């Protein structure tokens, strides 16, 4: 998948990405700070029928949402983790093995913990109002 979009199209891109990725439980969102990882994950959770207010996980490593469509969703932000050891101490491995959907920001902090069948998603800032999302790392 390769899509160029702004905020007005984010719901339809989230829907399309769900169709492509739903067989994977662990999703790794790769992007620079300020590109739109949190915003996109929130749009995805909204598409999946999360009703409770979605907070930014900036100050929590793991936020849990209940989705009508996909059960429990775990939204993780690994930004404040130093490395794999810290991630293990924070109990991240148990979440990754829980068979619940895990949407991860800053997966680069502990890449060794990601399962082999992790769904890798890449976001790029094209201009202030436009982003590119693609799922094939070769397509840069
Ligand atoms: N698809 C998009 N199109 C335009 N602006 C976006 C898009 N996604 C996010 N933004 C804007 O980019 C900024 C950073 O988004 P955020 O989700 O916090 O980034 P990240 O989690 O990657 O640091 C926010 O102001 C947000 O409104
Ligand atoms: Mg973020």
UniProtKB/TrEMBL annotation:
Keywords: ATP-binding, Cytoplasm, Magnesium, Metal-binding, Nucleotide-binding, tRNA processing. GO terms for cellular component: cytoplasm. It holds the Pfam family TsaE. One of its GO terms (molecular function) is ATP binding. GO terms for biological process: tRNA threonylcarbamoyladenosine modification. It is found in: Cytoplasm. PANTHER family: TRNA THREONYLCARBAMOYLADENOSINE BIOSYNTHESIS PROTEIN TSAE. Belongs to the TsaE family. This is tRNA threonylcarbamoyladenosine biosynthesis protein TsaE.
């Amino acid at each position: 998948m390769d899509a160029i979009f702004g905020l007005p199209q984010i719901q339809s891109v989230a829907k399309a990405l769900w169709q492509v990725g739903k067989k994977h439980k662990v999703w790794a969102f790769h992007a620079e700070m300020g590109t739109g990882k949190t915003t996109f994950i929130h749009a995805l959770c909204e598409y999946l029928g999360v009703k409770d207010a979605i907070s930014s996980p900036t100050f929590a490593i793991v936020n849990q949402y209940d989705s009508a469509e996909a059960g429990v969703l775990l939204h993780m932000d690994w930004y404040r983790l130093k490395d794999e050891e810290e991630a293990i101490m924070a109990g991240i491995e148990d979440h990754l093995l829980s068979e619940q959907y895990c949407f991860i920001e800053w997966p680069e902090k502990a890449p060794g913990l990601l399962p082999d069948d992790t769904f890798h998603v890449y976001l790029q800032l094209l201009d202030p109002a436009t982003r590119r999302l693609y799922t094939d790392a070769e397509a840069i």
